[in-house]
Structure formats: structure tokens, C-alpha cells
């Protein structure tokens, strides 16, 4: 999870290996992206300057893991910089190639 967030900030194309093809990525604004949308927006629309996680709670059940945390996201969306404090739930699935983000939802704190 932390590596995934680092790659978001770095805008590394290798982030693709951490994303399930069925991704549902929900933002606190209600904006929901699939994998294609997420990668395109990360490339062209949104810049993450930093992502700081706190109070991380991980629960694993077989090949599924839920990760809950408080996050501070410093980002620029469509040219407007903002720092947002969020409560986040990420759902990860274990595949033959490693853990992949399957779903994510955030709400503002």
C-alpha cells in the first residue's frame, strides 16, 4: 500500500502492476474511476505532491486484505493545489503477481 502511494506521487508507470483490472477508485467528492480512468487522470489531470498515512489498520482474510487509514493528500487537481484529510478504505486482492488494489473509497474528515 505504501509503495503504491509512493508511485502515485512519483507518477511511475510501474504503478500499473499494483492495480487490479476491475479497480473501483472512489474519491471523497463522489468521483469514481476505473483502472483506465485512474491511470489517465494520474498521468494528465492530478498531481500528488505527498500522501501521508496514519493509524493504518490491515486485516487479511485469505487472498483479500482491507486497509483502513487516515490520510493527508497534498495534490493539484486541474491546476488547483489542495491538502485534503481523508479516512480511506482500500481493498487489496492477492494474485499470482502480488497484491493489487481492487477497490478504494475515501471520505473527508
Features:
Nuclear Transport Factor 2, Chain: A; alpha+beta
Give a written overview of the molecule.
The protein is an alpha+beta fold and 109 residues long. The chain has a single domain (2-12, 24-108), classed as Nuclear Transport Factor 2, Chain: A, CATH 3.10.450.50. 17% of the residues lie in helices and 61% in strands. It is built from 2 helices and 6 strands; from the N terminus they run αββαββββ. It has helices at 2-10, 35-44; strands spanning 19-26, 32-33, 46-61, 64-77, 80-95, 98-108. It has a 6-stranded mixed β-sheet. β4 and β5 (80-95) form a beta hairpin. The model has no long low-confidence stretch (mean pLDDT 96).
How large is the count of helical segments?
Answer: 2
Mean pLDDT: 96
Q: What is the general shape?
A: globular
The overall strand count is: 6
Residue ranges: pLDDT <50 for 5 or more in a row? none
Q: CATH architecture, please?
A: Roll
What is the CATH C level class, in words? Answer: Alpha Beta
**Hey, roughly how much beta strand do the residues contain?**
over 45%
**What share of the residues lie within helices?**
10-25%
Number of separate structural domains = 1
- Placed side by side, the strands forming the largest sheet appear as 2-1-6-5-4-3
Structural class: alpha+beta
Largest sheet: 6 strands, mixed
Please provide the ordered H/E string of secondary-structure elements: HEEHEEEE
Amino acid at each position: 500500500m505504501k509503495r503504491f502511494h509512493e508511485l502515485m506521487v512519483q507518477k511511475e508507470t510501474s504503478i500499473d502492476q499494483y492495480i487490479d483490472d476491475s479497480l473501483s477508485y472512489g474519491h471523497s467528492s463522489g468521483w469514481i474511476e476505473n483502472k483506465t480512468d485512474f491511470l489517465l487522470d494520474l498521468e494528465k489531470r492530478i498531481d500528488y505532491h505527498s500522501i501521508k498515512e496514519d493509524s493504518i489498520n490491515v486485516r487479511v482474510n485469505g487472498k483479500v486484505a482491507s486497509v483502513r487509514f487516515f490520510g493527508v493528500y497534498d495534490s493539484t487537481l486541474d491546476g488547483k493545489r489542495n491538502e485534503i484529510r481523508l479516512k480511506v478504505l482500500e481493498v487489496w486482492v492477492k494474485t499470482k503477481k502480488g497484491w493489487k488494489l481492487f477497490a478504494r473509497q475515501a471520505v473527508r474528515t
